[in-house]
Amino acid sequence: MNNSTPGTVYLVGAGPGDPELLTLRAARLLAAASLVVHDGLVDPAILGMIRPDARRISVAKSRSRHSLPQEEINALLVREALSGKDVVRLKGGDPFIFGRGGEEVEACRAAGVRVEVVPGISAAIGCAAEAQLPLTHRDASSAVTFVAGQCKGLTDQDWSGLAGKGRTLVIYMGVATASDIADKLMADGVSPATPVAVLEKGTRGDSRAMRSLLADLGDMVVREGVKSPALIVVGEVVLRSNAKDKLAAIAAYAESLA
């Protein structure tokens, strides 16, 4: 029988990539942790902040492969904490924005394990800031919506109202389905001439920010060889960014609004 006092699970947001964007709390926890369970997209520079003698467990996920199913990750966190260890669960971006942090918190609470969430700068906030793309703007957008581009039943969902005049739509994990996303938005009433931006590997050394029009989104992703991680932003605020134009028509569209 294990008589150890249970440890604490810390769900820590690693931010979008740049180590300088970590919170002080996150940096202190990484420096002190003896066990870190981390996602695959966490930047190596951030992993380098973990103390050298700490045990590391990668639970990397990709679109087609998970090193551990989510249920097993939950069980791992609970098992290690119940054995008396404090566990840092390091997640890209923010744990509660498409990070499955809610599931891990619920598993810990159900097992009687103390859990603490340390927020991180979300990919949307960090990548948009680097591209000088204001997600809201008094003259262009008063509402922002975050959606997952790899969600099940994409074609069955009603995306009408999520993008259009006065609104900004941010799509996570949408590179592989960019063409379908564009078709879906246009089918639900969004103008093909709506500006879009793709923010690839934001805040990292090899980041790119590019913009076009919704009708060109799928083609642009293919032409430019966009790879994950990348965000798609849909809305007029795109025109206020420093992203590079990838379609001549977008410059003409911007001039028509001036």
Structural description of this entry:
With 258 residues, the protein is α/β, with parallel strands linked by helices. Helices cover 28% and strands 22% of the residues. A six-stranded mixed sheet has the order 6-7-10-8-9-11, sandwiched between helices. The radius of gyration is 20 Å and the shape is elongated.
| Cross-sheet strand order for the largest sheet | 6-7-10-8-9-11
What is the level 1 CATH name of the largest domain? Alpha Beta
Architecture of the largest domain, according to CATH?
2-Layer Sandwich
Given the structure, what is the number of helices?
A: 8
In CATH terms, the superfamily of the largest domain is Tetrapyrrole methylase, C-terminal domain
Computed structural class? alpha/beta
Give the total of beta strands: 11
Order of helices and strands: EHEHEHEHEHEEHEEHEEH
Question: What's the CATH topology name of the largest domain?
Answer: Methyltransferase, Cobalt-precorrin-4 Transmethylase, Domain 2
Helix content: 25-40%
Work out the radius of gyration: 20 Å
Enzyme class: transferase
Keywords: Cobalamin biosynthesis, Methyltransferase, Porphyrin biosynthesis, S-adenosyl-L-methionine, Transferase
Pathway: Cofactor biosynthesis; adenosylcobalamin biosynthesis; precorrin-2 from uroporphyrinogen III: step 1/1; Porphyrin-containing compound metabolism; siroheme biosynthesis; precorrin-2 from uroporphyrinogen III: step 1/1
EC number: 2.1.1.107
List keywords for this structure.
258 residues; alpha/beta; Cobalt-precorrin-4 Transmethylase, domain 1; Methyltransferase, Cobalt-precorrin-4 Transmethylase, Domain 2; 2 domains; 28% helix; uroporphyrin-III C-methyltransferase activity
